[in-house]
Amino acid sequence: VLSQSFPGAVELPVKDISDNCRKAFLLYLEFLRVILEFQKSSGDSTFHSKYPLNFLTYEEKNKLEDPAEYKKFLKAFNNEYIYEMMKLSQEISKYNTLDHICGINWIALFVGRQLYNLGLPVDLGRISGAAAGHDIGKYGCKDTEIERTPYLHYYYTDMWFKKHNIPYIGHIAVNHSVWDLELEDLPLESLILIYSDFRVKNANNGSKEEMRIFSLKDSFQVILDKLDNVVEKKRKRYCRVYEKLKDFEDY
Asked: Per-residue pLDDT tens for 143-157?
């Protein structure tokens, strides 16, 4: 399934897979899609159920100023079984990226819908697509690049959106670093994504890490606790971007 999105990250040559195996894989993915869709509304204790990765409603899509790009994103996301790929990756690896994405998508749409209902010029399609796709590049990193995933995933995310010709959603998805807050002219959709990303982090829970949604203040404290050996200049940079996020939250 990864070969559809990032063929360069796949070690097994796809051409060596027989047609019968391909058909079996696709059948499995279709069954998995049905099961995972049920899980979203099952009420279990997972992030995937508490904060299900749902997209815009039919009415919201019809109200978009230009729904074509959002529909293109949804088509690519579904055709390449992105959600199923993320779920399988989480099951076989130690990384809970899908939990992170679910939490961010939930906050981003919650905030975005509030601003939209207040009459602010915010594009819910770009928020939804960027929230769901902002970390997709993490799955494009090769085994030899795992240690550099925090830096390289921006490149692979950009590559995926460009491959599908989804420039506007892609621009928001790629520019979600807290350091982007240092720019003076930042789209509202980017600010919402950065704010959401800032609040969803792993927390230590005994022998393993567990994804949690923090308050803005607590999330900032988590960062400060990790900055004991960081130079004062970088600490001040974090304080400045936190103040911008706090101003946004207060608004």
From this structure: 889 889 988 999 999
Q: Do 1 and 29 contact (CB within 8 A), yes or no?
A: yes
pTM of the prediction? 0.91
Contact residues for 219 (Cβ-Cβ < 8 A; gap 6+): 198, 199, 201
Q: How far apart are CA 92 and CA 113, in angstroms?
A: 35
**Interval 60-88: pLDDT, tens:** 999 999 899 999 999 999 999 999 999 99
Angstrom distances, CA of residue 68 to CA of 35, 116, 125, 165, 244: 29, 19, 10, 11, 32
- The strand ranges marked E within 105-146 are none
Q: Do 86 and 100 form a contact (C-beta atoms < 8 A)?
A: no
Write the DSSP string, 213-251.
E--HHHHHHHHHHT-TTS-HHHHHHHHHHHHHHHHHHH-
